[in-house]
Amino acid sequence: MAKEEEKMTREEAGKKGGEATAKSHDKDFYQDIGKKGGEATADSHDKDFYQDIGEKGGEATSETHDKDFYQDIGEKGGEATSEAHDEEFYQKNGKKGGEATSKSHGKDFYQEIGKKGGRANSDDD
């Protein structure tokens, strides 16, 4: 009697195929198919889809990372931004932020932050 062939699971077949592909393709191949996949996803999904997966990713990340992680990536991002942009970039963004804040806050808001700033400065003396 012939030996009964062992059947490969779908997971095993996928792993075997992935390993064979990795041996025969370079970084450019993976970048190209990733770009194509990203474009196809963008064509078939709307803003809500991306907001939803972003929220899920943010929640998962917050469950596995602590305050130090966020401080570290924030610092790295700030350094990268400051290396990539000049003074005009910050002036333009500051102006946009100031305009947006003035549209969404009234006189009371500015009086309150002015008082807080005054108290903070008087504590320094």
Q: Describe the largest sheet.
A: none
Query: Which residues sit in consecutive blocks of at least 5 with pLDDT less than 50?
Result: none
Strand content: under 5%
Mean pLDDT: 93
Total strands: 0
What is the general shape? elongated
> Count of helices?
6
Overall structural class, as computed from helix and strand content, comes to mainly alpha
One letter per element, helices H and strands E, the order comes to HHHHHH
CA-to-CA gap between the ends? 96 Å
- Helical content (DSSP H or I, runs of 4+): over 70%
Report the C-alpha radius of gyration, rounded.
26 Å
Short description:
This is Glucose starvation-inducible protein B. The chain is an all-alpha fold.
